[in-house]
Amino acid sequence: MSTADRVTSLVRALRAHGVRIGTGESVDAARAVAALGLDNREHVREGLAAALLHDQGQRAVFDPVFDLYFPRTVGAPERPTGPADRDDLRARLAEALAANDRAALDALAAEAVDGFGGYDGGSGFSSQQALDRLRPQTLLAQIMAGIRAGGGGSGAFTDRIEADEIRRRIEEFRTRVRDEARRRVAEVRDRDEVARRMPVQTPDRTLFLYAGKDQLAELRRTVHPLARKLATRLAARRRRASRGRIDLRRTLRGSLSTGGVPMNPVLRRKRPARPELVLLCDVSGSVAGFANFTMLLVQALHDQFSKIRVFAFVNRMDEVTDLIADGAADPEGLSGRITAEATLTGWHGSSDYGTALGEFVERYGAAVGPRTSVFVLGDARNNQQDPNLPALRRIVRTARRTYWLNPESRAQWDTGDSAAGVYGDVVEMYECRNARQLSALVGRLLPV
Amino acid sequence: MFTSVDDVTARLADTGYLASPAVATTVFLAAKLGKPLLVEGPAGVGKTELAKAVAAISDARLIRLQCYEGVDESRALYEWNHAKQLLRITAGRDETWDRTRTDIFSEEFLLSRPLLTAIRGDDAKVLLIDEMDKADVEVEGLLLEVLSDFQVTVPELGTIEATRRPFVVLTSNASRELSEALRRRCLFLHIGFPEEELERRIVALKVPELDTVLAESLVRVVGALRAMDLRKVPSVAETVDWARTLLALGADRLDEEVVRASLGVVLKHQEDVQTAAAKLDLDAV
What we know:
The complex is a heterodimer of chains A (448) and B (285). By secondary structure, chain A is of the alpha/beta class. Chain A has helices at residues 3-16, 23-36, 41-52, 59-69, 86-99, 102-116, 127-134, 140-149, 156-188, 191-197, 213-241, 248-254, 288-300, 321-326, 334-341, 353-364, 389-398, 420-426, 435-445, and strands spanning 118-119, 124-125, 276-282, 307-313, 317-319, 372-377, 401-406, 428-431. In chain A, β7 (401-406), α18 and β8 (428-431) form a beta-alpha-beta unit. Chain A is globular. Chain B has 14 helices and 9 strands. In chain B, α1 (5-14) packs across α2, α10 crosses α11 (212-226) and α10 packs across α12. Helices cover 49% and strands 14% of the residues of chain B.
């Protein structure tokens, strides 16, 4: 495979994963490789990344794809493994982890895949299988004991963070094994196919509904920069909007003294009103992560609105604005506190949009006025209850704008107990499955 | 400009800038391919420093355009010196209008701002466009001509082309999304927090008097802080500040006492200090 071929295949694989790369950038990438030579793999990696990528988020896609097309080695690891000895490997792994010896860890990952990951008589490699046999996560205690016995560590205090460091290294080692397995698979199977099928996860594409605990923490970390970005965008939009339009009536009246020639256009001055926002969040089990994340985002955007009121419901509606304002320091416990302190469920524990919307109109109807934008957040799965469309219609009528953000894929709407279609006839409903979609939607839909 | 990536690394190190392989490779490529370099990353990791260091090693003049909200053409590109033009008009009362008119729109009355300055002249230059994300979107449009063709069009004078391309560095904290058109014209470099080993070397270089064992545990604690969920995680600049503080305090080892007393140097929010103290178990003793 020539270098040019490698670069173009790499570009194709990246495009298949949604990285937008133009021809100009491919040419730059090829020039970069020509300028750097192929002697140093890390230089080639960084050079290609500089030429092809446009933001850091794409690195999560780029690195594994790069490893496939510019592999570190070819074939089995150099060290003759013979019948692999699990205990020996574990001992050497513990040593390398304690010393944080990167080169050794790379070699060990290769050895582990070769020794324990093979199946199908050598045509398949599974990182899962290798990791199951090796169980690196169980090495922690052993490594810590080894360090203490050796008198390592510079004192009681830094020992405390030692465990976390080792844990991080073990996690890195698992990634190494995964990369290595993928590389070996790509050698025997079709490389392009492997690259295309490879699962990649960037935080802003993590699906809300399936995010695990770690991923939610990662998402939370993306909230702050996201909120800042949206805030600048909103501020710019507001600035533009405040330049105002011509007030025809006053311009014409002023023109009377000049015989009807409008000499001085009078601009309509906008009242400097910040918009109000009302959020209705379904916090039942299935959409809790989504609602939680959105509430955090809104909390971060707090100073963009004169008034934000947040209501949570499962089948009863309760106001949680205060809980969210208090929770600034502790986003982690937010959903826990909401379920503990607000009355969200009545007779049963499953979502009932109809009852909740009805209760909202009845108890908090005054929260919605002509300056309010209302966002309903939920999957519209109503458990076959009455959707109570009149209540929603009343909200839509009083509010300035009403939107519904649905964390389910559009294909699943109206399947099973989903009432997405029925509600979608009354309000504009948008699919909002990940942070990327959410930020695009919020940026577009939020009132100026 | 440079012969190889290692050459860049070595010469940057001479000026006191320790570059990771990623940084050295991109700088080498930017010089080689003649493309602008867009550097992103958290505050305090040395984005601006990089531009200064490149200027120092290539013996070039550093021209800096500091962006802010409201920076415009006349601040970034060029401006006509109106006062001087008026003087010129009053000085030559007897001239015909045609002469005066052509005369007052000539080089002499042009005030060159950073972008135009970087284009003109034959000496080596590094153009630093700092905190691009602070400027309005319109400014990006202004930059496109400069960055892709290294030329500036002044309607009255025509197009001014660079005879010698400047080395361009744009920095951004990503507080605003830069336009795709701008990104497309640049090589992209993200400077994140350095690897433990590199950060140790940076501390050793900036605060050479600090004991190496102490520096090592310092870098490790900073690493642990960065792994926490903080509002603002400490950057390299803060690591160096902390090293200086420890030196000033005369601390010879890093223990709870010292960390608790000086945590404010690295963490800038009270909630962060509390979170970190709880996680590092400082109050348990």
